């Protein structure tokens, strides 16, 4: 594994966590949205992650082919496969004066827990910080390796 593989893996995680933060922000911003463009309440969104193979074509050039299977599962980043909508039913609140109230006076609010969203945001933030630390460490290692060649 070269320095660039490590950088590439960490960069896939940065991109995935940035997308996660965007989705969480959207959920928080729409926690009280009772009507979207299609006329229904906002539905909470979540991401589906999947492993992403890194440098599949370059692997044979770096290591002998006998190591291909051993390294195949270890050199993986992360990729956002899909953004899905949560199927939880809405929270119904009695507010007959609300313009989006049904004939019985109930308004459908998105089933979004602010506490859960904030917890997810902190987790995504910590993962982002960890991957930036990985990139910084790889950069330091590369600089020190270059420094070894200097006299």
UniProtKB/TrEMBL annotation:
Its main location: other. The basal body constitutes a major portion of the flagellar organelle and consists of four rings (L,P,S, and M) mounted on a central rod. The rod consists of about 26 subunits of FlgG in the distal portion, and FlgB, FlgC and FlgF are thought to build up the proximal portion of the rod with about 6 subunits each. It is found in: Bacterial flagellum basal body. GO terms for biological process: bacterial-type flagellum-dependent swarming motility. The lineage of its organism: Bacteria, Pseudomonadati, Chrysiogenota, Chrysiogenia, Chrysiogenales. NCBIfam families: FlgC. It comes from Desulfurispira natronophila. This is Flagellar basal-body rod protein FlgC. Residues 104-146 form the Flagellar basal-body/hook protein C-terminal domain. It comes from the Bacteria. Transmembrane segments: none annotated. Belongs to the flagella basal body rod proteins family. Keywords: Bacterial flagellum, Cell projection, Cilium, Flagellum. InterPro entries: Flag_bb_rod_N, Flg_bb/hook_C_dom, FlgC. GO terms for cellular component: bacterial-type flagellum basal body, rod. Residues 7-34 form the Flagellar basal body rod protein N-terminal domain.
